[in-house]
Design goal:
- The chain has 222 residues and is α/β, with parallel strands linked by helices.
- It has a domain of 115 residues: Rossmann fold, CATH 3.40.50.
- The protein contains eight helices and five strands.
- It has a five-stranded parallel beta sheet, with helices on both faces.
- The protein is elongated.
């Protein structure tokens, strides 16, 4: 069973959170509310999120300050942030959002379909990263078992070919997603996709190294 991705919704106004939930419910993912920057940071301590929708204007810790804290933490720095704002102070204000680490900056009122489409891209990218970690963990368990490459392939009923086939499917999906991001995503989105491709390439090299006669396995660092 595929685990649902978590999407963090941060806004101090309950009616705005309710509207976001209505828009994103069609994605059939787990929506988590936070009514302040402090509450959002607390949720990020224990939960993994595919994307964060962050209101700019909030009392106390505003969206820019919240984003700065998120980007300073190693655990959360790579989570995509989409800023939502009801005001528009021109290019300088928008630039400040991107400088704070946002992958997108959307002014209210926004098109529900466009917002849902943007969020779905990052949910899909998150799912690819989860698949990659699972494949790497499976391979690491086999390596930690101390089996020789040839024995691993024979003793597990062809584990290496199965892993290679699964990885090929993820590689193909990641390539399609990267092309979509290059055409419609921002620079941060493209960078995130490139990061995923580098991880996939490292896992592919590790799998190739396990093949009989290859001379051993590389270290895997997902």
């Amino acid at each position: 069973m595929v685990q649902k991705a978590k999407i963090l919704l941060v806004d101090d106004r309950p009616e705005n959170l309710l509207a976001l939930e209505a828009i994103l419910s069609a994605l059939d993912q787990t929506l988590v509310r936070a009514s302040s920057g402090e509450e959002a940071l607390k949720a990020l301590l224990t939960e993994d999120f595919a994307v964060i929708l962050l209101d700019v204007q909030m009392p106390g810790m505003d969206g820019f300050e919240t984003a700065a804290h998120i980007k300073r933490r190693e655990r959360t720095r790579d989570i995509p942030i989409i800023f939502l704002t009801a005001i528009n102070h021109g290019p300088h204000h928008t630039f400040r959002g991107y400088a704070a680490g946002a992958v997108d900056y959307i002014s209210k009122p926004f098109d529900p379909w466009v917002l849902r489409a943007k969020v779905s891209v990052f949910v899909e990218l998150h799912m690819k990263n989860v698949q990659l970690r699972e494949q790497a963990a499976l391979l690491r368990r086999e390596l930690d078992g101390g089996q020789a490459p040839a024995d691993t392939e024979r003793g597990s009923g062809g584990l290496l070919p199965e892993l290679s086939a699964r990885l090929a499917a993820v590689e193909e999906q990641a390539e399609v997603l990267s092309k979509e991001l290059a055409e419609s995503g921002g620079g941060a989105a493209v960078s995130t996709a490139a990061h995923l491709e580098r991880k996939l390439a490292g896992l592919r090299r590790a799998l190739d190294a396990l093949q009989p006669g290859s001379g051993g396995a590389e270290r895997i660092d997902p």
